[in-house]
# Entry
Amino acid sequence: MNCYTINRTSTVPVLDGDWDGPIWGDTPPLDVDIFHEKGSDHRPKTQAKLLYDDADIYAIFRVEDRYVQCVDTKRNGSMCADSCVEFFIEPVAGRGYFNIEINCGGTPLVHYNAQSASNRYDPVKMDDARMDKIKIYHSLPEVVEPEIADPTTWLIEFSVPYDVFEAFVGPIVRHPGTIWRANLYKCGDRTSHPHWAMWNPIPGELSFHKPEHFAPLHCGSG
# Structure
């Protein structure tokens, strides 16, 4: 099983996609590089970095991709059909998990699923007021159509305030030594070269909604 130390930051990321900049440059990346066998032979290089502070969780994804497409501009739409990155997190043990899915044009899906101990996916969609609190940077236009077949690198960076989660799971501990659980994904279900990649492996059927296969995020001191 993988594990990742999510370091504490004293500087709030400005959400400008600066992967190698002063805030993210020294943050170790994790690799989303385990591909499900049902996918095509397309294997985009996908990495992510995570940080936290007293107010928010921060994430940045960098994807070296091809066959990039993005057509869904409706919140809580079918983001996974587009070129998409995903962050699933269980911030309080046994209280369910959140799936944050953002297509390459920056349109998000955010669901809460209370069935943390089950394979069942029975989501509650995040309302607009809470969705508005999630800040997102995207390097590509909101719509990418027709599909870009040439090599294309794109980034998604976002912040999520704890109170978006705490409305569903109660207080979230966020100090060094805390352990959250998560998995991260890259997909493109309806692109010309569909693929499904994950950070921590999920054996068997193709489903990202397997919280029993989430891996530890260790909150560091920075």
User: Anything to note?
Assistant: The chain has one domain: 4-219. The longest strand covers residues 56-65. The CA atoms of residues 202 and 208 lie 8 Å apart. Residues 4-219 form a domain with the Immunoglobulin-like fold (CATH 2.60.40.1190).
